[in-house]
Amino acid sequence: MSRTALHVSPHPDDEVLGCGATLLALRRAGWRVVNLTCSLGRDTDRDRRRGELKAAETVLGLEGRVADPLVDIGSADDLRLAEDRIVDLVESTAGDIGADLVVSPHPQDAHHGHAVVGRAVARSAPFSRWWAWGLWRDLPAPNRYVAYSRSSMNRLEAALACHAGELARNPYQDALIGRGRVQAVLGAERVAGFGSGPLSALDFADLLEERVRTPSGWHLARGHVVGLGELVDPDPDRGHRRPDALVDGVGDGP
């Protein structure tokens, strides 16, 4: 049975820079992946960024949705009001598409717009599994390592190239490659334990913090290696056992 993931993106290009390889992995595993974008940035940039976003989503094979009305998540905006609006937006979208998994920035990501999205997702329902990524700050407790190949990096670079206006401002393509390599090397020890060896022979990796909802709230997921198609956990107590590396390889598929 096909499953659905909702990625909550603060801005256009976060669908690539946040954990684009993970979204590709989900698509290749047969998941429907909906990318919900909360903001299009400054008023003068919105038409450009909407077009760039649509092109990037096509490259990645994502189903795109944009908040209507857009959510104001700038540093000078009322971020508490924005958080409440995003809670409503996430809950309505997740319910509408029947999301089995929600993916978003971590609430402690250093960018104010990313953090407000992460806080809103943490407050939202009705989903029970959440993957958080960190771009502007390292994740506090990564427990999922998604290895990917040069072929997948090529696809990410093509998607990021669609955001030409943002790349003219800052060379994010360099950050995409460098971050993927650093996470492949250092992430292995962060997830599997310091002193461990490589988790994959692939060149790049995404790191995520997976949480599951229990009656007492969100808890870090722990357990054996799971595949992308095996997210429904039949053992609710498994989340409290000793953690092992959670590894998903992304090969050279389409």
Structure summarized in a few sentences:
This protein has helices at 14-17, 20-28, 46-60, 79-97, 112-123, 150-161, 164-169, 172-192, and strands spanning 4-9, 32-37, 63-66, 101-105, 129-133, 144-148, 204-214, 217-220, 247-250. With 254 residues, the chain is α/β, with parallel strands linked by helices.
Structure overview:
The chain has one domain (4-222): LmbE-like (Rossmann fold). The protein is 39% helix and 20% strand. It has 8 helices and 9 strands. The protein has helices at 14-17, 20-28, 46-60, 79-97, 112-123, 150-161, 164-169, 172-192, and strands at 4-9, 32-37, 63-66, 101-105, 129-133, 144-148, 204-214, 217-220, 247-250. Strands 1, 2, 3, 4, 5, 6, 7, 8 and 9 form a 9-stranded mixed beta sheet that branches. A hairpin with a 2-residue loop joins strand 7 (204-214) and strand 8. The longest helix has 21 residues, at 172-192. The model is unreliable at 223-246 (pLDDT under 50).
